[in-house]
Amino acid sequence: MVRLWYHENMRVFHDRLVDDSDRVYFKELLKNQFEAFALKEEEVLNAERVLYGDFLEGKDVEPRIYKQLVESDVLVAKLYEFQEEYNQEAGKRGMQLILFLDACEHVARITRVLRQPMGNALLLGVGGSGRQSLSRLSCFIANQRIF
């Protein structure tokens, strides 16, 4: 439960910070709270990236179970499967994305936001950084329509 608490704080607050010193400070604040739960940092942060998602079982499976995405190779493979499904439906508008771990993390974050009631996000980045493509893939995973 503490791991999920950490993840949600990272999504709600950390993802909005724009300065590296603020991000480091915020992570330390969260880590200091582990003692209140009588846990050590190693017990909570069991992976390089603490990331959760509800799409590993498939995009049409209900109920979707929100669980930790521990194995990065499984996550990458699943997102490539979704990309292939998207390309089959999109035809000429298909995408050929290279899904490295940071891109997969962004897809998980965007999908999380889209699946929330009234979910919305502002994606920032230079042109060609993948905002539109990752959003299209995330919409497909979240069973949302792009307009």
What would you note in describing this structure?
The chain has 6 helices and 2 strands, in the order H-H-H-E-E-H-H-H. It has a domain of 77 residues. The longest helix has 19 residues. The protein is an all-alpha fold and 147 residues long. The chain has a two-stranded antiparallel ribbon. It starts with a helix and ends in a 6-residue tail after the last helix. The relative contact order is 0.12. 50% of the residues lie in helices and 3% in strands. The protein is globular.
Shape: globular
Q: Can you list the strand order of the major beta sheet?
A: 1-2
Percent strand: under 5%
Structural class: mainly alpha
* Helix-strand sequence: HHHEEHHH
Radius of gyration: 16 Å
Low-confidence stretches: none
**Roughly how many Å apart are the termini?**
36 Å
Q: What percentage of residues falls in helices of 4 or more residues? A: 40-55%
Largest sheet: 2 strands, antiparallel
What is the average of the pLDDT values? 92
Figure out the total of helices: 6
Question: How many E-type strands?
Answer: 2
